[in-house]
C-alpha cells in the first residue's frame, strides 16, 4: 500500500507535465493555413503588384497571372493537373500537383519565380498553339495544346 501511495501522485505529476508539454509544443507549431499565409505574405513582398485574391492565392495584372500556394505533401484541388481553359500552368510537383502558377498572356514575362520552388510539370490548356518552358531565353520544354508534361529541366518562365 505504501508503494502505491507514492506512485499515484508521481504518475499524476508526470501526466500533467506531459500533457502541458504537448500543448506548448502544439502552440509553437504554426498551422498549415498559417504556413500558407506566411508564404503569401512573402510572395507579396518579393513580387510587387500582386493582390491576395483568396486563401493561398495571389493574382497579378488583373488575373493574367495567378499563383496558388499549396504546402508540399498536401493534396490540392489541382492534384490532377487542372489548368483553366486558355491558360498555361506551371506546378511544383509532377502530374500537375503542388503549388500552381497560371498565365493567360503570351506576351508577358511569365516568371515562375513566385512559386518559390522548382517547376516539375507544365500544362498547356489552350485550344491551339505550343507552350514552352524557358530557362532564361532558351526553350527547354515543349508542351503541345491540351496536354501536360513533367520535367526536371530548370524553368524560369513559361510562354508561347
Q: What would your notes on this structure say?
A:
The protein has 160 residues and is α+β, with helices and mostly antiparallel strands. It is 26% helix and 29% strand. The chain is built from 2 helices and 10 strands; from the N terminus they run ααββββββββββ. The strands form 2 sheets. The chain has a 7-stranded antiparallel beta sheet with strand order 1-2-3-5-4-6-9, covered by helices on one side. It has a 3-stranded antiparallel beta sheet with strand order 8-7-10, with no helix packed on it. A hairpin with a 3-residue loop joins strand 4 and strand 5. The longest helix has 27 residues. The chain is globular and about 45 Å long. The chain starts with a helix and ends with a strand. The N terminus is likely disordered.
> How big a fraction of the residues is strand?
25-35%
Helix proportion? 25-40%
- Structural class from helices and strands? alpha+beta
List the secondary-structure elements in sequence, H or E: HHEEEEEEEEEE
Q: What overall form do the CA principal axes indicate? A: globular
* Cα Rg: 23 Å
**Count, helices:** 2
What is the β-strand count? 10
Mean pLDDT: 80
Main β-sheet: number of strands, strand sense, barrel status?
7 strands, antiparallel
Strand order of the largest sheet: 1-2-3-5-4-6-9
User: How many angstroms does the end-to-end distance come to?
Assistant: 82 Å
Instruction: List the uncertain runs.
Output: 1-26, 75-80
